[in-house]
Amino acid sequence: MKIHASAPGNVILFGEHVSRHGKPSIVFAVNSRLHVYLEDRDDEKIILNSSDLDIWDEEWPSDALEYVSASIKRFFAATGRKEGFTITTESKIVAGIGTSAATVVATLGALDSFFETKLTKKEILNLGFKVIMDVQGYGSGIDIAAATYGGIVRFVKGEEPTIISKEKLPILVGNTGINVKSGSIVEAVESKKEKFPKLYNPIIEDIGNITDHAIDIIKKKDLQNLGQLMNLNHGLLYAEGVSSLILERLVWAARDAGAYGAKLSGAGVGDNMIALVSEDKAYEIEKAINNAGGKVLNLEIDPEGLLVEEEI
Question: Distance between CA atoms of 21 and 12, rounded to whole angstroms?
Fold first, then answer.
């Protein structure tokens, strides 16, 4: 039996640095996927491969593919199933677009199909979050939610995600070219919150309120007001200290070129920003982001999350 599973990368639209505190965030899946191919074996060995990382014939568990290894371990612990197979990953997802979450979800999806355990999306979400915590030691599950459910998702830690829309928004994603480890940024924000709780707690509340307000606006496709909320969210993230010179350049280049709104996306400092655009100004905004030192990625909202197909 052969299994092919894939899960999308993701981009946060609203709510960075608040989801771990139980506040709502909005994230969307993107049309850039990580693929997992699982095939049964005649022996009891579990062999791990990665074509994009040029890693071959690693026997499980392996530090070289820690998210795959941790996913297998969690799956076995939850289901009690175990037998031999070969698993191969292939990814074209750009750094900062949720490669780790997509790896975890696609791996769990492939295992679920292979062992016929019939896990629900919520069960995959919960298992995936545990894997992220096993490997990283921090997280909220927001990226796992996007990879599992697809579309535009409202996420609150501990609750089942809600799909706001499966429709596309006219968004450009600009990459800074700077890859950052989100752990150190998260720790810095949390340290400031502990030091100045009366200043940082209101910011967390405000970002959560912006997120909730944005839900109805997304459904109404009110791009003008949605852009204003993006600008407001970015201002609060700047106040938290997670922006940077390159992100400010890209954000302001997009706004000056006519974007409805623009903000950093993700942990901050590097990785990506997003701009909400109109069709008639999309080219000029893309050119402005690129000229400011960024690179606009060929991404759009993917209505689908985890996809699995079997070949007997």
Answer: 16
**At which residue do the structure tokens 């975890």 appear?**
104
Handedness of CA 205, 197, 233, 300 (dihedral sign): negative
Provide the residue ranges of all domains of the chain, joining segments of one domain with +: 2-166+301-311, 171-297
Domain at 171-297: CATH architecture:
2-Layer Sandwich (3.30)
Give 234's strand partners. none
Strand order in the sheet with 171-175: 261-265, 272-276, 171-175, 295-297
Q: Does domain 2-166+301-311 have CATH number 3.30.230.10?
A: yes
Active-site residue flag, 143: yes
Active-site choice (52, 112, 134, 143): 143
Please tell me the distance from the alpha carbon of residue 296 to that of residue 177, in angstroms, as a whole number. Answer: 10
Q: Nearest CA to 31 among 62, 16, 10?
A: 10
In this structure, what DSSP letter does residue 222 have? -
> Mean pLDDT in runs of 10 for the chain (312 residues)?
95 93 95 96 94 94 94 95 92 85 98 96 97 92 96 95 96 93 88 93 96 95 97 97 97 98 94 95 98 96 95 64
